[in-house]
Amino acid sequence: MAGYDDLREIVAGVTDGRGADLALESVGGAAFDASLACLGPFGRLVTVGASSGDAPNRIGLAKLWFRSLSVMGLHLTSWIEQRPDLVATSRRRVLDVLTRRDAHPVVGAIFDVTSVAQAFAALGDRQVTGRAVVLVEPSP
């Protein structure tokens, strides 16, 4: 898996040097900085958390001004409480995608139910790219 240092170069290659229009970021710290650096002019960064525990405290405003960037925070509980109509619409759209089986999540690792601790450790150590799945057998 590429490190955050490589992310800007990878995004530039995929976008013919233009940069990303939108980045969704949930890790914080170095991932936040790398995501911001990957944006093209008029790009938008939406941050939804800081699972690394390292939330950035400041952003260089000159970066935002000169590249006309937007940074937005998203807190789902606030949306549920203050805009339940939009959440309901989005929920229906997501369920429609799932019902049609149009979503294809990346499964990075599969664990047996007896290996839940190892699954959490692998996630915590960033050893899993994509989703970690724990298989649970139905009760007889």
Q: Would you summarize the structure shown here?
A:
The protein has 140 residues and is of the alpha/beta class.
Helix percent band: 40-55%
The percentage of residues in β strands lies in 15-25%
Q: Give the overall shape, derived from the CA principal axes.
A: globular
| Major sheet attributes | 3 strands, parallel
Radius of gyration: 18 Å
Q: What's the number of extended β-strand segments?
A: 5
Average pLDDT number = 88
Q: Which H/E pattern describes the elements?
A: HEHEHEHHEHE
Global structural class: alpha/beta
End-to-end Cα distance, whole Å, is 40 Å
Textual characterization of the structure:
The protein has about 140 residues and is α/β, with parallel strands linked by helices. It has 6 helices and 5 strands, in the order H-E-H-E-H-E-H-H-E-H-E. Helix 1 (about 5-15) runs parallel beside helix 2 and helix 4 crosses helix 5.
Question: Secondary-structure blueprint of this entry?
Answer:
Layout: H1 4-14, E1 20-25, H2 29-38, E2 39-47, H3 61-67, E3 70-73, H4 76-82, H5 84-99, E4 107-112, H6 116-124, E5 131-135
Parallel strand pairs: 1-2, 2-3, 4-5
Helix pairs in contact: 1-2, 4-5
